[in-house]
Write a structure and sequence with these properties.
With 679 residues, the protein is α/β, with parallel strands linked by helices. It has 17 helices and 26 strands. Helix content is 30%, strand content 20%. Helix 10 crosses helix 14 (431-444) and helix 14 crosses helix 17 (594-608).
């Protein structure tokens, strides 16, 4: 596995063979030492090549301030090295030990209404706390010096799931840090007043000393203040990460670093963070009770792959079967864990890991499944895990290959934070719901899709899809306009291009920075009532449905593709197309029902000549391609409940079937996977 294109890992440190890494989160401190030998023996049996270790070990390696006990962890690392299992070594700072908050209660986070959060769970620290950061950095310095030359060390895993439980803190130390951050951003308080539109409601500040986080207020807090606090909070978490990274870079410059995102997580801007990682890692927990869970996972996988421009990434955590934290925690049916693991690989992962290796006996996650469950090795879970480990190990040539796409979907964290603020025409807008509504038709039709920020180079794409880009900077609007002018195709959904980076409305008529390329203006927003729907009448006479939102659209060169068929906007455009320069731009002024959204997306893709990787695929069958020096691999995954017959364009061999002969026709069972080697 090429974990990082720019990082050379010393040959003496590479314990495991090249290929797709396989393993899980290893927490030996939960078990007596006599269990450890059994662990490594079972790891070899299951085909484990990489484990993450030490994530929650701080309290055990530093039981008292400044007193360290690494002896037990030395033995863990030695056991793993002896078994040929590499380690992604955590910095152990994800949760502080109880003594730290006892001696320094100021590290504990506070909510917007001033309530303190206490130890007893995890992540009980204020991201801005200097005391927390100082103690964390001191521990990382010890770790790095101790294990820099250990043969098991392959990567560093900084922190864990940043922002999962304490994405923001409103305490006095956070307030001081926020004021510092604002002073750096704006330079002087008058620039802040302008950015925050403080002339409204007599909010003008005379000094940064008067500024607070958006704590509980009598009514709507200043929206620009809320937006900046979201940016600041993301940055405060990132500064925790960077403080530890600096130590690791100084002591172990040749060892790659990563940290694990929690899916596509609103508090943490994955695109910004990815620039500070050598390899991107993500935790994904599909819901077996949700028939479309693989589509949501596919979106996460595409975000993760795109975050570093297509570089292979790591599935750091998934569940072998059930989780413990949903209201209803269903197990993964036979074959689904394998299918969803291969889906990650098919969409660019070079590592498949789990939480966790051995199922906990006590604690909050004791009912979370693990590679070695409570029932031991004579269980379905362990058998399936072991079979997958050896199957992944049989195709090492996949590692390092990459995917490409002709379609990009735009996602911007700043716009996400701004879109979901209060005091809007509707607070029912949900960025992920809208993004998935645009992503799903692409996924279902087998059209490869990158997910990119609006400042990414778009020149290599045929089609760019823009769901609810509410906050739009002028340079990004110019980039989208130039993309269409140069021959690209653009699909934009409602309530986009409305405000600037300070949440101030772009003047000149909605959506001012996109009016020229879209060939229209929006005169008025008409959000729909809860459960209200409207008819959408297409030019060919077909009628669809839409809900959530509508807009009064006035064409300025754009042609109506569909009109509202009822209600106060009856007869006015609901979907438009505008020829602009060498390309075309579509606008959707409502939320189309899924079947209508898919039909529109298909029309737009045809116009953009953005076709599926494998035309004519049966429903529920996913197709992806990875290619590189080792060849071109076509992945086929059947997410349906029935077998699927697939016609291939030419005879191919399934790399997962020993002794397979080339064939141009394939029967893929339910939950089946094929990795076809293209000639």
């Amino acid at each position: 596995m090429r974990l990082a294109d720019s990082s050379a890992i010393d040959a003496r440190r590479r314990l495991r063979p090249p290929g797709i890494a396989f393993g899980g989160d290893y927490n030996p401190e939960q078990w007596p030492e006599e269990v450890w030998a059994e662990d490594v023996a079972l790891m070899k049996e299951a085909g484990v090549s990489l484990v993450t270790a030490g994530i929650f070990s701080w309290a055990k390696v530093e039981p008292r301030p400044g007193e360290y006990d690494f002896g037990w962890f030395d033995r863990v690392m030695d056991h793993l090295a002896g078994a040929g299992v590499a380690v992604c070594l955590a910095t152990m700072t994800a949760s502080p030990p109880p003594w730290l908050s006892r001696l320094h209660p100021g590290i504990l986070p506070e909510t917007a209404d001033g309530r303190r959060m206490w130890p007893g769970g995890r992540q009980h620290y204020c991201p801005s706390s200097r005391v927390y950061r100082e103690h964390a950095v001191r521990l990382v310095e010890r770790l790095a010096n101790r294990y820099a030359d250990h043969p098991a060390l392959e990567m560093w895993h900084i922190g864990n799931e940043y922002g999962c439980h304490t994405p923001m803190c409103w305490c006095d130390e956070s307030a001081a840090d926020f004021r510092r951050w604002l002073a750096e951003r704006y330079g002087d308080v008058e620039a802040l007043n302008d950015a925050w539109s403080t002339a409204f409601w007599a909010q003008r500040y005379d000094s940064f000393d008067e500024v607070l986080p958006p704590r509980l207020a009598p009514t709507f807090p200043n929206p620009a203040q809320q937006l900046d606090f979201a940016r600041f909070s993301d940055d405060a978490l990132l500064q925790c990460y960077l403080a530890e990274k600096e130590v690791l870079r100084r002591i172990t410059p040749d060892v790659p670093v990563t940290t694990n995102f929690i899916g596509v997580h609103k508090p943490v801007d994955a695109f910004r963070w990815a620039a500070e990682e050598d390899v991107v890692s993500v935790d994904v927990y599909q819901d077996p009770h949700d028939d479309s869970t693989h589509i949501a996972a596919g979106f996460i996988f595409d975000v993760t792959r795109s975050a570093r421009a297509g570089q292979p990434w790591m599935l750091m955590e998934q569940a072998p079967s059930a989780v413990n934290w949903r209201d209803r925690n269903g197990p993964k049916p036979p074959g689904r864990m394998r299918l969803w693991s291969w889906q990650a690989v098919a969409q660019g992962a070079d590592a498949v890991l789990y939480f966790q290796w051995r199922q906990s006996r006590g604690g909050a996650e004791k009912y979370h499944s693990a590679m070695v469950p409570h029932g031991g090795t004579d269980t379905r879970i362990f058998r399936e895990v072991s079979e997958l480990g050896h199957e992944l190990g049989s195709v090492p040539e996949i590692a390092g290959t990459r995917s490409t796409a002709e379609v990009a979907l735009v996602l911007d964290w700043n716009s996400w934070w701004a879109l979901e603020l209060d005091s809007h025409p509707s607070t029912a807008l949900n960025q992920m719901e809208i993004a998935l509504a645009h992503y799903r038709p692409l996924f279902e039709d087998g059209i490869a899709c990158d997910v990119v920020p609006p400042d990414r180079d778009l020149s290599g794409y045929r089609l760019v899809v823009v769901p609810n880009l509410y906050l739009l900077k002028e340079p990004d609007a110019e980039r989208l306009t130039a993309f269409v002018r140069g021959g690209g195709h653009l699909l934009v959904s409602f309530f986009s291009g409305i405000v600037d980076e300070c949440d101030r409305v772009h003047l000149g008529g909605y959506p001012a920075p996109l009016r020229e390329v879209l060939g229209l203006r929006v005169e008025e927003f008409w959000p729909l009532a809860e459960n209200e729907t409207v008819d959408i009448r297409h030019a060919d006479g077909t009628v669809g449905r839409a809900d959530l939102w509508s807009e009064a659209v006035v064409p300025e060169g754009a042609q109506a593709v569909a009109d509202f068929g009822c209600g106060p906007l009856a007869g006015q455009p609901a979907v438009t197309r505008h020829s602009f320069g060498e390309g075309s731009a579509w606008y959707v002024a409502t939320r189309l029902a899924p079947e209508a959204m898919r039909a529109l997306t298909q029309d737009v893709c045809r116009a953009a000549s953005a076709g599926p990787l494998l035309p004519g695929l049966p429903e529920h069958v996913q197709a992806t391609v990875r290619e590189g020096d080792a060849g071109r691999f076509l992945f086929l995954l059947n997410h349906g409940r029935d077998a699927a017959e697939i016609q291939l364009p030419e005879p191919m061999t399934d790399a997962l079937t020993q002794g397979a002969t080339p064939t141009d026709r394939l029967t893929l069972p339910a939950a089946g996977v094929a990795v076809l080697v293209e000639p």
